[in-house]
Structures are given as C-alpha cells and as structure tokens.
Amino acid sequence: MASEETKPKKQRDEECIINGLPGELIERIFLRLPVSTLLRCTGVCEQWHKIIRDPQFVTSHLQDAPQCAVLFFPQESVSGEPHPADAILIDEAWSPSTYAVPVIGPDDFLCGSCNGLLVLYTKSSTLKVANFATGECLHLEKPVKNLRGDHFLFYNFGFHPLTKEYKITHFLGDPVVGSTRSHNNSRFSVIQVYTLGDEKWRDIKTPEALSLNCVKNSGAVNIDGTVCWLIEDMVANWQHAVMTFDLSEESFARIQLPAIVHEDCAGGGPRRYWIREIDGKICIATAQACPSLPRRLVGTLQIWELENKTEQRWSLKYNIQYSPDYIPGPNLVHRNKIILQRRNSNLYSYELLGENFNTKLCKMAKLLDFFPHKPDNMQSYISVKSLVRLDVYKKTAIVRRPKQREGWELKKWEAWEHQLSDYEKLWTCLHEEEHEGIALAERSSISFNGLLPRILDDAIRQDIGMKINQICPSLPDQQPRPLRRLNCVAQKQDRENLSARLENYSSIMKASREASKSIMSMILSAVENQRGASGSNAGISSQNRSEGDDAKA
C-alpha cells in the first residue's frame, strides 16, 4: 500500500471523506461492489483492507454475490492437435466471458465448485484448490499416489453450512487382488474424505460395494453439504437409486426413485439417467439414447425433482418433448433458463414454458460456439465470485508444491504458445501497415492538392478535388490488445476479427490505390489538354499577327 506521503492530495482528501463515514455504512457500500473492485480497494488503506479481509464481511459478501455459470471444457486432442482445458463464465445478463481463468491449467480437470472455489484434478500427485476470482490457490496431496485408473469424476467438493467446513471426497476403487497399485474401476467400498485444514485424508466405508460406473456415467452433485449420486438397484423400476453422504455426520442414506414405468419408443436405445441439481434440489434427468450413438439423446427428456427428502416424494418438473443432443452437468439451469447442447457444437439457452406434460423449449438463444471441443465432455457449474481465502489452510502438512513442470511450461504446449504469439505479431504488423497506409494516402493527398492550382478548368478541378478526398482510407479504430490470455471462444472470435480486418484493409488500400491512379490520370489529361489548348491559342495569335502585318503593308 502506498504511504500517505506518496499519495496525491486529492486522493488523501477523498479517503478522509469516505473514512469519516460510519464503519457500518462503509461496509454496506463495499457489500455492493464486485470482487475485482474490492481487491483493488484492499490496497487503498489499512481500514479498508481490514474491513474487506474480515471473515464476517467475506461471508456476508458471499451471500449476496450474483451467480454465474462456469462452463468447463477439458483438455482434448482434435485431429492430432491438442487443445487446452478452458472455462467460460456466463454472467447474469447471459454474456460469455472474454478472458481465460488464470488458475485453470491446460491439463486440469474440474472436480467441483463451491462458494467461488474450484477443485481441479491434475495429472501430477496433487489436487489444486483455487479461488478463480482472486487467483489464490493451493496444492493438496492426493489420497493415493500414482493410482491407476483414477478419474477426476471420482472426486467431489462441498461445503457444509452448519460446520462451515469444506470437504473433498474421493470414491476409491476396490483394490485388485494381487496388485498393490491397481484398483478396480467398476466398484468401490471406501470414500476418502479430506477437510480443508486437516493433516490427512480419512477413509469412510460405504454400506456396501457400489458402482463406480454409475458415478462416471451419471455424475454426482453436492447440495447443502450432502454428496448425492446414483447407484444400481436392479429391483427398482428404474434400476437405480440415489445414495447420499452427509459431509457433517459422514453418514449414508438411500433414496428410492419414482415407481413410474417409462414408455420407451421402439426406435430408441437404452435409457440413461443423470443426477443434477436445480434450485438447490436433487433432480434426476432421464432420456433414451440414440441406438447408434449411445452418448446422444433422442425422444423426450424428463427431469424429476425430489420434493420431500424425508417422504422420498418425487414430482415431474419438466417433460421436454424434443430432447437436446446432450445435456451438461452437474448444473444445467441458470436463472430460470436451461442450458442445452446441440451436435453442431453450439450451446443454447432456452426458456421453459409450462410444467409437467406440457413443457416447451422457447426463446432459444445461442450462447457460444465451443468447437473444436466435444459437446459431450463439457461440464457446467453454478458458482459465484467470492473473497474466500485459502491462506488459512496453507500450513497443513498435506499442502504440497508441485515438484515437476506443469501447465503452460510443458513442452507439449510450446507450439500452442508459439501460435498465440504469431497471432499477436500479425495484429502488430497489421496495425503498423494501417498506420503506414494512412500516412502514404495523406502524403499523396497533399501532393495532389498541390497540383490542383495548375488545373485551370473549374469543373475538372472540382471533380479531382472530390476524388482526392476519397484517397484517405477510413479504417476502424485500433483497440489496445488484451494483456491477459483470452479464453477459447474469445480466441476464435479474435482470429476471425483479424482475418476480417486484414481483408477489409486489403480492399480499402486497393480502392485507395485505384483512386490515386485515377486522380493522376485525370491531372495528366487535364494538363495535356491545357498544353494543347495553349499551343492552339499561340498558333492562332501568331496567324492573327501575321495577317495584321500584311494589312499594314
């Protein structure tokens, strides 16, 4: 923070006025400010820093923080070319963000989001917990090192509102007989739990061996401090049930699904189920899969909501007649609109009109084009930007520093970084070319204007003057280049803008050159005509003088 002596007098006076207000009023003003502004305010003075960093203020600000949708795309290879992991934030106005989230590395996988904190699965021996608004992060040792068959979908992250504790859970596959490192990818009997601030992971036994495939295929959600996921139940009509794990009591419970029998269409494939969270409630989405493409949906999409957890009473919340190709998760509804994916790599939002058997998708709006990322790999979380701090957890023994190069430092991303650098060089060259093109056109304009007085014909001189005004190109304003890394959608748009601007500049300068040639031709023609007229007039004058002399003689 700057010392009082180095601050301008105007700034010191303004701070004195604000700090003269009651502390409660200052806090109420701060509660209305976004996280980015508050982070800058912490460096103004000690009083502001103390208010904003106070845990009670952090909690109060979190309660009223506007929600945003976090759309996460994992790293994947398309046509042999690697594409890094990325995230897009959708704000309250349904506008996608422009910049990349700095705490997300190119090889990270998103495991969970809660109160502005993300848990990211890395390919190293650590998990990363990060606040994507403040940029603060810490690395935690994984519960099992070098675990074969481990998957980011086996991890979950939540916060219990009563204990105020953040916990990470891990579904640990049952060990393979005869192997010390390999674990079963289909069943698990232990949930490993870590509480932020503790020294180690703890193992909690499940009531029975449960299906890891259900977790991988249907997902898991964390609602009010309870982890929920689907398990197999072959006796039930849906052949599934919901298993819950309370993060406070660390106890399990089973919830039966509706007893209704689905009427599947003859042309559809097997029925799929997903567990989702909508408006703070457990929901089950179900639809038939395409027979030839089992990850694509056909027919009707039903979304059932758990109305009463004690009575295990469900109701049909939405019955969407024309299902999307894919549905994201674990959160698919943001501000009363549903987010759905189509096979053309476009993401749309829809208003849901009607309920139960008359639900219709209305007022479709395209959010973004996420090509070349694959649609069935996208995750969506409802989150907030918060001031929640992680430094209070950094002194535990489980916190580690990565021992190996990771992220953008890896050799596999050198070509990607060079490509981004090349695009920046193209922008720089284009801006320089535009400056030079404008300067050249202005010099040509000055030169042509200097020749105009030699044109005696008023009509021709006026016509040439109008064409000179067309020489100077009218180019778009040059906006400063962003200092931060753009996300994948903004990068694609930036490249399209570069291509369009290059084409526009080329056509404008071509028109300017053609106008210059036309002006030069008109000036030369006018001067030549004037010389011809001058010579003709001189001949007539000479003849007239000769005839006059003869008459005198």
Automatic annotation (TrEMBL):
Coiled coil: none annotated. Residues 15-62 form the F-box domain. Pfam families: F-box-like (PF12937), FBA_3 (PF08268). It comes from the Eukaryota. Residues 530-553 are annotated as: Disordered. Residues 530-545 have a biased composition (Polar residues). Transmembrane segments: none annotated. InterPro entries: F-box-assoc_dom_typ3 (IPR013187), F-box-assoc_interact_dom (IPR017451), F-box-like_dom_sf (IPR036047), F-box_dom (IPR001810), SCF_F-box_component (IPR050796). This is F-box domain-containing protein.
